[in-house]
Automatic annotation (TrEMBL):
Residues 1-132 form the Thioredoxin domain. CDD domains: TRX_family (cd02947). The keyword Chaperone does not apply. Residues 153-349 form the PITH domain. GO terms for cellular component: cytoplasm. It comes from Phialocephala subalpina. This is Related to thioredoxin-like protein. Coiled coil: none annotated.
Amino acid sequence: MSKTINISSSEEFEGLLKSSRIVVTDFYADWCGPCKAIAPIYEQLSAQLSRQNQITFVKVNVDNQKEIAAKYGITAYGAPHCPKLTDSFIWESANTPISMPTFMIFKAGKVEEKIQGADPRKLQAVIKKLAAEAEGGASSSGFGASGSGSGWRKGDLPRGYTDVTGEVDVKGLELLNSDSEFGSVRVLIDGAKPTGLSGGKAAESKGKDWVESDTDEQLMLFMPFQSTLKVHTLQITSLPPKAGDDDEVPMRPKTIQIYPNRAHILGFEEAEDIPATQSITLSEKDWDETGTATISLRFVKFQNVMSLVLFIVDGDGEGEKVRIDRVRIIGETGEKREMGKLEKVDDGHGH
């Protein structure tokens, strides 16, 4: 379901500027081709990054909401042909020509950024930068709870792809063999900075926001999606503490088997009988300074993905348990699936 708000009055817009810390605004017109071309990208960002009272995505139809458009110097005078995403219709305003579409990002009610024209990369970069800032300043209010804020991670996303962790169907998440003394499965897709990166007593006071295996080192994670995805990369964060005299230190994952498009979670014995679409072996050098390992998938095998099963087969070390703090999914979002229905798609094995 779209999280974007279609503004119906000046009062509604002004109310959102007061109630939401950041408001991302798409000024558009129905007759503008570039507006229509970039709309799916805008909707994807909205689905991933919207947070109640923190970051809100809205659309303003300049033909229907002339008062709002005029207030911010945007007034359309016609409906020319705009056939390509790279084209931008230059139209008149009270002070200066404005490209169509125009995106304005408000922070604390004031214009923070303005993007003129249909530039997907610039739009994504600016919005995600502000979202990361919002995450850093609003962790206590729950920003990032759906898994898309990631300013604490290092490095850039693969070119042309975005963080699609927000497409996980949270209600359908399952995790087998987890120790109930630690966090629930939902902490894995939380975008907030793991307390394991903070360290000390302050982190301990915030609770155990990670998962650990229970009877042995194996874990089985099932993630269904709200949309059909093209999955390019997985990132797994694991932050075991330093060894202490009396502490049993969990291990980082070593062998991970990945199964796309399963209709339900696999049992451990069942997984041993089913060939994995991809098997990964991680070593110490694969983990960066944030405790994150980046796993590049065989992209051709993960083109129409409605669910993923991650089977943590063993850990890297001599311990008895494995710890995972976060999981992030990077790729492209496709069509929304009908909720409640998850059909198995051919994964290339022919069975």
